[in-house]
Design a protein that fits this description.
alpha/beta; 7-stranded mixed β-sheet; two-stranded antiparallel sheet; 12 helices
Length: about 300
Amino acid sequence: MDLSSISNSRWATGLVLGVGRAVPPGIGHRLARHTASRITANRDDPMVQAVRANQWMASGGTLTGDALDAAVLEAFEYSGRFLYDLYHVMDDPDSLMGMVEVDETFERVLADDRERPHVFAGVHLGNFDLIGRALGHHGWKQQLLSIADPNGGYQWQNEMRERYGFDVTPVSIEALKRAARRLADGASVTTGLDRPLLDAKQLPRFFGRPAPLPLLHIRLAMRAKVPVVVISSILGENGKYRLQASEPIEMETSGDTASAMIVNGERALREAETLIAGAPRQWAMPHAVWPDLVGTV
């Protein structure tokens, strides 16, 4: 069993949840660093190799050797901290909001969402679950399209998201119909844009290289004639999480549908590239976005 199988299990999620609730931040953050060191010591693990390939691409292919090793270690440290911070404050709204910068971007997303529907496309950058709950605390109610057939830890994460106001619907024909109805009724939908798909038919370019990434957010937005907003949440030097959001991306519909989906998908991915470039070690994507690179960098 590899690290990915263990980390996605229900017992592992429960263990992290228990630690997050039980220990103070100083210990929790040190534990995240220690765990990251233990994980990255096994360079042959598929998850470690995936993060290595992702970090190499995010650097424009400039990181090698010890510098790339350090980047992978730091990426796992951040992932551990994000989980700890989320679970430490998840049942305490005041502490939760104390970790979030409620700035003009935060307020703009709330205001824009009330004015017209959007498809929000999340980047696995920073701590989106934490800031998503902060948005929900301010009335942001979303249908969240998650991975199909979740199990173990993923299912538990979805159950926790539902407790905090998300309508979590694993991707299926019925879930997509519900999302389309929701957009038609003037409400927004949220999904991810940077988790790779094993059976992707179209390969938009991401950081200059074709990648098997989803275009579900684009398909929904094109059909509903609504914009896509790319969002993430990074940890600042002040220890608080800040919402990042692109300007609304209006969908282009000229030409055939397949070509338009690629064009619109790459426009959204360019926004994601900009966000990731600002804090590349906080890109918490444990799956290989470019599978052909795994084991080669």
